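Handout, tutorial session.
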Amino acid sequence: MTDSGQNQAAAPLYWPARLPYGALAGVRTRRIFALLIDLIVIGLVFCALVMVMLVLGVVTFGLTWLLIPPLFPIIALVYNGLSISGWRMATPGMRAMDLEMRTSEGGRVSFLIAAAHAVLFYLSWTILTPLVLLVSLISNEKRCLHDIAVGVVVTRRA
């Protein structure tokens, strides 16, 4: 009788299974420091825009002050969307920590996926913090819950 292929190992269906050795080494720690760098950059941009809006608020009788509360999330979405979908595939914090983000198939991340990833990330920190961290600790690819939801993988550049 011939073997029907049941004893053979199945080929990996997605990109992380074919990652080179060391591509995921230290990713969790590097992501934390990358997040801190990115939050500082986003905070500086936010502060600069708030200063401009405060001055404009005097001219517009306070109407531009209504735009201040949603400003931080908007900056964060545009920052993540543009930088991750760009040619470097990483935010400035991720680049400083030698990280990049790709789709599960190994391709570039689109702006919409990067923005959705940012939304899920910020929501997960406000709602599901322990669950997000636990998933990262048990995942072979060191992926967080929001990474799995949008189909991305964060790896080392080298």
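The second record follows below. Compare its token runs with those of the first.
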Amino acid sequence: MANHKATKKDVRQSRTRNERNRYYGKTTRNAMRELLASADKAAAQGDLNKVISMIDKLAKRNVIHKNKASNLKSGLVKRINAMA
């Protein structure tokens, strides 16, 4: 464990950030899972914008890389468009 005040504070801050990032990431993954599980294409189209916004916020906060965000959004749009 760190012995300097600034290092102890940094450990506290990083722990807080990690918990927050895990929460946002898990919430987004759950929203993606629910979106893909829905059978109604019209309802899925409506929820798609909310999920894409969540993914963009993760990329903005550097929780995920911007290219990963782009790949996730692309895959979601393809799956929604392929619904019958």
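Points raised in discussion: The chain has one domain: 5-81.
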